[in-house]
Amino acid sequence: xxxxxxxxxxxxxxxxxxxxxxxxxxxxxxxxxxxxxxxxxxxxxxxxxxxxxxxxxxxxxxxxxxxxxxxxxxxxxxxxxxxxxxxxxxxxxxxxxxxxxxxxxxxxxxxxxxxxxxxxxxxxxxxxxxxxxxxxxxxxxxxxxxxxxxxxxxxxxxxxxxxxxxxxxxxxxxxxxxxxxxxxxxxxxxxxxxxxxxxxxxxxxxxxxxxxxxxxxxxxxxxxxxxxxxxxxxxxxxxxxxxxxxxxxxxxxxxxxxxxxxxxxxxxxxxxxxxxxxxxxxxxxxxxxxxxxxxxxxxxxxxxxxxxxxxxxxxxxxxxxxxxxxxxxxxxxxxxxxxxxxxxxxxxxxxxxxxxxxxxxxxxxxxxxxxxxxxxxxxxxxxxxxxxxxx
Length: 391
Ligand code: GLU
Hints:
Layout: H1 2-5, E1 15-20, H2 22-25, H3 34-49, E2 53-58, H4 61-68, H5 78-101, E3 107-112, H6 114-118, H7 120-135, E4 139-144, H8 158-168, E5 173-178, E6 183-184, E7 196-197, E8 199-200, H9 205-212, H10 219-235, E9 239-244, H11 250-255, E10 260-263, H12 269-278, E11 285-289, H13 291-298, E12 308-313, E13 320-324, E14 330-335, H14 340-346, H15 351-358, E15 372-374, H16 379-388
Parallel strand pairs: 1-2, 1-5, 2-4, 3-4, 5-9, 8-10, 11-13
Antiparallel strand pairs: 6-7, 9-10, 11-12, 13-14, 14-15
Helix pairs in contact: 3-5, 4-5, 8-10, 9-10
The structure holds glutamic acid.
């Protein structure tokens, strides 16, 4: 991959999610490492100045809240850690807002529970909010909503949470800043022969064993959830880097070619999205199209309202719908850009009248070609399908 040829491992990535572990942000006494955070904020400002979009997934709420509330017990009860998260999250957000504010960067806070990343309705909303913040030049700061998440429905670790966030917003890269500079063949603290792996082409059982095979010291679970995060990211077309974040200016260090492990994506994001569309079991509705639109779709074009002759079902924007040819046979599936009410309003209409009907920022496409998968009917479509879905 090109990233390896370059001295700067971040050079080829535009939208980057960066996960910051608690141990980097909060010291053993429960105090914020403010000087370290100031350095990181400077690094983030430099990346933004290069035109990159940055999303932060920050841990540290429980660690900060614990000391704020004077909770000294070694192991907190669930109630105590939820209270700690509640108090600590305010301090954490404030720290980020001040640190990035020094560089004129506005932050936005988003607290997430698994239902948000896994349920389409919430997912689309959270994604839109994050994209809007990015479009406005802000840096979203994300954490799990630990004060309300219940034991059964929580990520519990920000490694996997950050991977789901990165894939949700179609980030090019996820960077996990932790206390170790990447994946080793064995835990380096215990095995003098452990060697660092600069590149993981794919996450095989052997790689998983390297992450999870160590004895019971603190970082064991740490590397396991990082490799799980790697699976989530790479299968969705997002690359992942593990790098050490403990020293000052960790991102500047990485940009200068600092030691890290790169996990290569196992697919492209476009292929991953199409596989996801095809994986939808029940479509929410159908749209039937005229012969001209059917031909346009077969050539890889978007579905425009003017080609639609009939709509069935009740669907929301973002639902999967089936596209039928004039004979009623399914020729494609896609994520629809309008809800069924608006779609019925504009079907058969020219694109330039749609803005008049639906208002300023309405999309001209009913299904954008990026969100469309041909499911067959003519030779052309089958060939294209084979191209989209290798294997
Ligand atoms: N969400 C937790 C916190 O902010 C941290 C979870 C993790 O570090 O993986 O305290």
